[in-house]
């Protein structure tokens, strides 16, 4: 495998310029949610050119490619997401987004390009494959309910033994990797609250029921849930991100609305936090003689890195880079990913691919309007995909 790895690196290197060109082209033409027709077209065309069996329109606009090896009984899936974000790019690279209000500020352009590159290299090494390989290009990662459930409904995981995905990570330098075994990314839930008091004159609060006071106390007490009800060695966050109420200075409004997010890594904690939020709301409104509406929307499930897949990815990484460039185990994060749906279904591992470069000033986090990647990271990303495929089912 060692010699094979150095051959893989050479081959990834030889495809680098064309993969950079593909990434920049996608970057300049960002598409949102399921509306990724152009990007999906690029992926499908690239796979078809390799003689890979291609299905389009999977999960609305996803693309699935299969390399089948005669006699192989196992199948590995490699996944990339294709969608951009509804935001303005504020950086000024030569390949800046040409579409107003849309930009690849999460690196999904690089994910798509790397998987295309990996498909090219894997095709070159096809004789070395011991397992079937499925390439998954997925739409709508950024927008709930995500593109993964739609693709799963169309059978994208059928016959797949294990699935792997990469995400560019600017907090690590290009040439570095990280894996968080176990629960790796949180479940991002959303709650909406309406507190219904009684409107009135601001100078006669005793004749009104002030929802602003109740709402303010609700926000404060919510923070005690994480501080006092969740085991201090576990993880949870509650953030209230919107608080709307009132129209002028001398009127107590009849109601206020609040929105927020809950992020957790474990189901029992998620269930308990959700329950406590409503308990606080119910107790507090009833104490003041107010009433409430409460809605709670569960987000993507926790992205879970199965021990065997994480260990497998880690041992492959050690062949690609020095161990000093691998963070393992990397701490879990409370961001969400719809890769979580796959990982709840079959053994999976979601890998962080270092994409930053402090010297070049590439330091901005995903979703920052000046986000970018050090494109050199794509060689490592491709090499990781290729090595995962070539080592799969190999004894
Ligand atoms: Ni992303």
How many runs of DSSP E, i.e. beta strands? 16
**Spatial arrangement of strands, main beta sheet:** 1-2-4-3-5-16-6-15
Small-molecule binders here are: nickel (II) ion
Q: Which consecutive residue ranges, at least 5 long each, have pLDDT under 50?
A: none
Characteristics:
395 residues; alpha/beta; Alpha-Beta Plaits; 2 domains; 8-stranded mixed β-sheet; 10 helices; binds nickel (II) ion
Structure description:
The protein has 395 residues and is α/β, with parallel strands linked by helices. The chain folds into two domains: 2-185 and 301-391, Aminopeptidase (3-Layer(aba) Sandwich), CATH 3.40.630.10; 187-297, Alpha-Beta Plaits (2-Layer Sandwich). The protein contains ten helices and 16 strands. It has helices at 2-14, 16-28, 37-48, 108-124, 148-153, 211-229, 267-288, 307-320, 339-343, 377-391; strands spanning 53-58, 62-67, 75-81, 132-138, 162-173, 177-178, 182-185, 187-196, 200-201, 236-245, 251-252, 255-264, 291-297, 303-305, 326-327, 348-356. Strand 1 and strand 2 form a beta hairpin. Helix 1 (2-14) packs across helix 10. The longest helix is centred in the last third of the chain and has 22 residues, at 267-288. The protein binds nickel (II) ion. Nickel (II) ion binds next to loops.
